[in-house]
Specification:
2 copies of one chain form a homodimer.
Chain A: H1 8-27, E1 31-37, H2 43-54, E2 60-66, H3 71-78, E3 82-87, H4 96-103, E4 113-120, E5 134-140, H5 147-150, H6 152-156, E6 160-164, H7 176-186, E7 192-194, H8 203-218
Parallel strand pairs in A: 1-4, 1-5, 2-3, 2-4, 5-6, 6-7
Chain lengths: 224, 224
Amino acid sequence: MAKLPLGRNVRGRNDETAAENRRRFAEARLCAVNLLSSPGSGKTSLLERTAERMKDRWRILVIDGDVETERDAQRLRAAGLEAIQIQTHGACHLNAMMIAEQVATVDPAAFDLLLIENIGNLVCPSNYDLGESSRVVVASTTEGDDKPIKYPEAYHTADLCVLNKVDLLPYLPFDVAAFEAGVRRVKADMPVLHTSCTTGAGLEAWCAWLDGQVRATRGEPGKS
Amino acid sequence: MAKLPLGRNVRGRNDETAAENRRRFAEARLCAVNLLSSPGSGKTSLLERTAERMKDRWRILVIDGDVETERDAQRLRAAGLEAIQIQTHGACHLNAMMIAEQVATVDPAAFDLLLIENIGNLVCPSNYDLGESSRVVVASTTEGDDKPIKYPEAYHTADLCVLNKVDLLPYLPFDVAAFEAGVRRVKADMPVLHTSCTTGAGLEAWCAWLDGQVRATRGEPGKS
């Protein structure tokens, strides 16, 4: 079965704009992280917990993508973050032009960390570079342990895998070793963090990883 | 934000082929059901449980869509069903041409029920008519109760909503009333069935619904 061709114009324009976004982020020393996942993996909850732990340390902006509703940005504003909602009204991924348009409404140098919560979709967003510094794929234990090999592109293009909802493991037929073997098969050296937004497990490690990304962007040493 | 335009040629060709599929299914008195959901909602497990209950009553064919791997078709063959795997290698939805191509390899009149397991994606598959008799959106309790209003197209175009993994409700912050209110907001008259493939809850009602679909296609009265 042939891969659905993306028009050269669409992809070319996206990649040019992504390169421009990346240049602007670097100039502003803004660390941009693109979060990909299935619907309902817990990205917004993860960012709420991240806000609690990091909002006094770094100046954080969220760009939140959804097909419909402003719910996620509202939740993140309630958590104390500055948040912009993009509603795509049917479109299945964020693209670099959408990000450029929103970044133009703020001063990028006024922030240290840009968290981009992509549309809940494990297929299409992986094909679109947004100009991010790093990409995170968020899996949840409830999705089953075979997702890395069934949706390899999202895993292959990510720099970090977060396995969320580990508090539910006792109630699920989820094989952590099989999941991690699948991740390694798609991307041999990808780190996997285990988190639960309910119990707080793994959130320190997640925030330490983010902290390292921000410091690297700013040219600072790894530890405060 | 503008809706991503689908080329008129792509959609036109899909809709023509879907109409042709629908004509062939009607001629063969084959009931075709298209199942849509997020990755990991439990569609394959639901079909495994369906096989146990219905494979001696009706002749069932499964067409299984995945980005990569043949795992799901293998699971369904092990459950005693005839199953064809389509691997899209990156494409985010099944289209009517893919279905036509596979249906041409079998005798449609040799089956009573065609179950099409779409790619795990709550956005793109909702835009593609496959020629199905009815469409089912499978939600899982672990995705959160706000998905109907965040991904309205999948819910709006469905004839039935199955809320799966209800056995996990005690461990989740999932509000069933809010979920069902969201479903009604998107499609006022859509029935919602609650199922668990772990405990078996709701599977009789699901199979009764499927049974009604098959009988309606065959022009038989509702109950055996």
